[in-house]
Write a structure and sequence with these properties.
mainly alpha; 3 helices; 2 domains; 0% strand; flat
Length: 96
């Protein structure tokens, strides 16, 4: 963490702001998923241990949720590319 702060401190203003916004957007996205998908907007007092456990479990599920979305996007893009390639191959065969 200290190394990252030192690296950011040596950058010009525009690059520093870009780096901060990159980190900020990742964190905000995770918090948005935690709040909207898992309903972690308000926490009842159940005790520190139970609330901490719930938070850790929710963070773990959020990571799995986001990985699932990313892998689904990659799978969709790969299928589209495969269909395009197959379509081009059939066009080339019919032209010959």
């Amino acid at each position: 963490m200290k190394m990252m702060i030192l690296i950011i401190a040596n950058l010009p203003d525009a690059a520093r702001n870009r780096e901060k916004s990159r980190v900020h957007s990742r964190v905000e996205h995770m918090i948005g998923v935690i709040k909207l998908k898992f309903g972690f907007t308000k926490v009842r007092y159940r005790g520190l241990a139970k609330n901490t456990n719930r938070l850790f479990a929710t963070c773990g599920l959020t990571n799995l949720y986001i990985l699932g979305i990313d892998s689904e996007r990659r799978r969709t893009v790969a299928l589209r590319a495969q269909k395009t390639t197959d379509f081009r191959k059939t066009l080339n065969k019919t032209e010959e």
